[in-house]
Write a structure and sequence with these properties.
single chain; Alpha/beta knot; seven-stranded parallel β-sheet; two-stranded antiparallel sheet; alpha/beta
C-alpha cells in the first residue's frame, strides 16, 4: 500500500501584521542570567511555536540587538513579544503585581514534580542560569518551584530543552479549553504544503 504524506510549510500563512493580533497563550517566560545566546535563541523559537505571551530577558541574558541571537532564533524573534529587565527579581515582582502566579524550574528540596502540579493560567515560568540555576532571591519570591524528573546519572538537562518540556506540559494541561481562545485554530489553518514522494506501508 502506498500513500503520500503532506508536510506543512514551516511558516505561518498570516502576514506579520495579522500574526501580531492573534490571541497569545498566557505564559510569561523569565530568563535569569542565561550565558548562552544560543540557548536564548532556542527558547525564543519555542516561545514562538507555543505562542507565548511574553519573554522577559533579564540580567546578562542576551537581548537584541545580538548577532548570535538573531542566528539561533532562525527569524522567530520579530514574532515574540519580549522585554528586557535588569534583574529577574524585577520581572518576577512585576508579574506578581499583575496577579500572575510565578513558577521556577529548579531542583530543590521543595520542588514539586512537573507532572504533579496543576498550572494556572496565566502563569510565569522562571528559567535560571545554565551553571547556577535560579537565584535564591528569586526562589524566595515565587509561588511554586517545579522540577522535571531526572532519572539518569546526571541530574540536569539543557535549559532550552527544559523550557520546552515545561511550556508544552503547561499547554497540554489547558489544551481542552484552548479552542475558546483560538489556539487550536492555528493547527487547522489552510497552509501551503510540500508534497513528499510516495511512502510505502507494509501491512502485516
Amino acid at each position: 500500500m502506498e500513500t503520500r504524506i503532506q508536510v506543512r510549510s514551516f511558516d505561518s500563512d498570516l502576514n506579520p501584521e495579522q500574526f501580531q493580533v492573534i490571541p497569545r497563550f498566557p505564559v510569561y517566560a523569565v530568563l535569569e542570567n542565561l550565558r548562552s545566546a544560543f540557548n536564548v535563541g532556542s527558547i525564543i523559537r519555542t516561545a514562538d511555536c507555543a505562542l507565548l505571551k511574553m519573554v522577559y530577558l533579564c540580567g546578562i541574558t542576551a537581548h537584541p540587538p545580538h548577532r548570535k541571537l538573531d542566528k539561533t532564533s532562525l527569524g522567530a524573534l520579530p514574532f515574540v513579544q519580549w522585554e528586557y529587565r535588569e534583574s529577574a527579581l524585577e520581572a518576577v515582582r512585576e508579574c506578581r503585581s499583575k496577579s500572575i502566579p510565578v513558577a521556577a524550574l529548579e531542583l530543590t528540596d521543595r520542588s514539586q514534580c512537573l507532572w504533579e502540579i496543576d498550572f494556572p493560567l496565566p502563569v510565569a515560568l522562571v528559567m535560571g542560569n545554565e551553571a547556577l540555576g535560579v537565584s535564591r532571591e528569586v526562589l524566595n519570591e515565587v509561588d511554586h518551584i517545579v522540577e522535571i524528573p531526572m532519572l539518569g546519572y546526571k541530574n540536569s538537562i539543557n535549559v532550552a530543552v527544559a523550557f520546552g518540556v515545561a511550556v508544552y506540559e503547561i499547554q497540554r494541561q489547558h489544551w481542552g479549553s484552548a479552542s475558546r481562545d483560538s489556539w487550536k485554530t492555528r493547527l487547522k489553518r489552510n497552509q501551503p504544503v510540500r508534497q513528499t514522494g510516495p511512502c510505502r506501508c507494509v501491512e502485516k
